[in-house]
Amino acid sequence: MTHKSNLSLRVRLFRGSKRFLAVGLLAVSMPSNLFSQTLPANVKWLSNDSDPEYADLNAKRGGTLNKEIDSFPATLRSLGPDSNGAFANYLNPLSLSLVGVHPNTLNIIPQLATHWAYDADGRTMYFKLNPKAEWSDGKPITADDFVFTMEFHKSKVAMDPFYQDFWKNELELVFKIDPQTVGVRAVTKKPQSDLYMKCNVSPTPKHAFGGKLPDEYVQAFNWKILPTSAAYEISEVKKGKYVTFKRRKSWFLDDARYYRGRFNVEKIQFDIVRDKNVAWEMFKKAQLSNFFVTPPTYWHDKGNEDIFKNGYVHKLWFYTDSPESAVGFWLNTEHPLLADLNIRLGLAHSFNIPEVINKLIRGEYEHLAQAFVGYGKYTDTSIKPRKFDLKLADEYFTKAGWTQRGGDGIRVKDGKRLSFNISYGGEIMNGRLALLKEEAKKAGVELNLQLMDGVAAFKLMREKKHEIAYSAWTTNLRPNFHQGYHSENAGKPQTNNVSNTKDPELDKLIDKERTTFDEPERIKLSKEIQRRIHDGAYLIPSFGTPFYRDAYWRWFKLPKVPGVKLGDSSLEALDPSQGGLFWIDEDVRKETLEAIKSGKKFPEVVIIDKTFKANK
C-alpha cells in the first residue's frame, strides 16, 4: 500500500511485499529424507536469518490507530469484479506470501515459508512452510491452501480476467509435496532473482470455502470476512461508515526475526471521510492518528498551525529509494480522437506539468518521464519528459486536421470541439488540474474536469469508459508490461490496460521479454518496450515524489531510523514488509492531552531523514 498511489496494481500473488529482489542468501543444509522423494535429490535449501532487523524491539503493544479513507470499499473480496480498488491496499496485506523481502537490503526473508530452494529447470521453486503458521481462526496453513490458490485464481467463477491471464502466461502449477512442502512452477525459465517474484504465491483458506469455490462466489463472498494469515484481521464492518481491524492475540510470527517489535497497535479503525478538509479538522482534534502531508499545502502551510508549533504533532520528511509509481493521465485509445497518435502527442505537449510543479508544488516534486522510472538498469533513462510546447502541440494538432479555433480559442473541426473529459478521484488534484486546464487552452484544448468518488473513478477507468483518467499505480521491483500494454488485455473490462493499447509490434516485444531467460537481453527488451510505449504516448506522466511526509501525534513512536528504503509511510500499519514499525506510548498520550488542556507547550519537532536518499 502506498501514499504515492491511490490505486493498486494487481500484485496480490505477492502480498508479502510490493517489491522483491533476491541477493546474498544464506544456504542451510536440510536432510532430504524429511520430504517426499518427489523433491530433487540434491535440493539446496536456503534461508535468511542474518539481515539486520529494522524494528525497535522495545516497542510497546497496545492502543488504536485511527485512519481515514475517502470512499467505502466496493467489496471485501480479494478476487473478481471491483476487488482491485484502493481498499485492496489494506486487504491484500492480510494474506502473507511464501517469502517476503527485506525493505532495506532487498534480500528474500522468511514469511510463511522458512526455507526455499530452486530447481535446476529454472522454472520451479520449493518452499518449506513454517509449522507454526495458522489462519486467524486457528486452522493450520498447509500445502492444500496453496494448491487451492491456484484453483481459486484460475476459476472462471471468480470473474477475474487479470488472474486468468496471469496463470495462463506466468504460472503453470502449484503442487503439494507433503502437508508442509509446496512446489510452484512458472511457465518459462527465469533468473533466480526474478523467479521467486512469479512463484511467491499466497495461500487461500480452503476450509473457509468448504473445500470448493462456489458458483455464486462473486455474490456470496462480496462482504464475507475470511480468515487471515497476517497479524491483523477484520473485526467489524459498518457499510458506508468504517472498517475495523483487530490484532490477533497470538500471531505465529510475533517472536520471529524481522517481525518482532512490529504490528504493535491492537486496533486499526478506518473511518470513511470523503472531504479532506473535514479529515484535517479531525486530525487536529486527535480523532485521526496521522496525516499524509507530502503535498506542500499541508507540509508548509497547514503544517505551521499551533498543534505543530506547540509540539503536539511531529512532522517527518523521509527520503526513499524505490521505483516510482506510474502517475499521470491515461488516454483511452478507443476514444475516436485519442486513437490518433497526433492528437495524443499534441495533448502531451499541451499539459504544462512543470508549471504545476513550480507554481503549486514549490518545485519539490519531479516531472516523471514515463511509467517505469526508478528500476535501475531496467529503466531507459534516455527517455525524457515531453515539454509543454505550444509550437509542437500546434504541429501535431495540425497534422490531425485541427487547424481552426473557435471564438474562445478552442480548436474546432466539423462542428466539434477539441474537448476531453478528465476523470479523477481526490480533491487534492483540484487546483493542479485547474491550472493544467487553463494552460491547455493556450494550445486550443478544452479539458473538462470530473471529480468523482475514488471508487467510482477507478471503476470507470477499469471498465474502460473514461476518456482521460488521472491515476497512479503501485510498483514491483521489475517493470511489468503485459497487463498494462499487451493487446490481449485491451478492450476488456477489469484489466489494467486502461489505455486500450493495441500495438502488434509492442506485443511481440512484450512476449519476448516475458520468456527470455538471459538477463542482459531482458534489460535490452525492457528498454525497447519503454521506448515504444513512450513513442505511443498512451500516458502523459505527471508527478514523482522520491520521499514521503508524515504528520503524527507525539505519542506515536518510531525506530531510530524512522522508515525503510522501500517505504511509503512511517505509520503504514499492515504491509508485511514495511508496516507496523510504530507504537503508542500511553504515558506520552496522557501527558499530551493534559498539556493541551492546560496550555503547556513542547518543543516543535521536524525530522528530515536522508538515510536512504538516492544519489541522482
Termini separation: 25 Å
Q: Largest beta sheet, briefly?
A: 5 strands, mixed
Q: Please tally the helical runs, counting DSSP H or I stretches of 4 or more residues.
A: 17
- Low-confidence stretches are 1-37
CATH class of the domain at 326-544: Alpha Beta
CATH topology of the domain at 326-544: Dipeptide-binding Protein, domain 3
Task: Indicate the overall shape.
Answer: globular
* Mean pLDDT across every amino acid position: 91
Decide which structural class fits the backbone.
alpha+beta
Adjacency order of strands in the biggest sheet = 21-20-22-15-23
How would you describe this protein?
With 616 residues, the protein is an alpha+beta fold. Among the domains are: 12-52 and 97-220, Dipeptide-binding Protein, domain 1 (Alpha-Beta Complex), CATH 3.90.76; 326-544, Dipeptide-binding Protein, domain 3. 24% of the residues lie in helices and 20% in strands. It is built from 17 helices and 28 strands. A 5-stranded mixed beta sheet has the order 21-20-22-15-23, with helices on both faces. It has a 4-stranded mixed beta sheet with strand order 3-12-11-10, with no helix packed on it. Helix 9 packs antiparallel against helix 11. The longest helix has 18 residues, at 519-536. It is globular. It starts with 25 loop residues before the first strand and ends in a 7-residue tail after the last strand. The model is unreliable at 1-37 (pLDDT under 50).
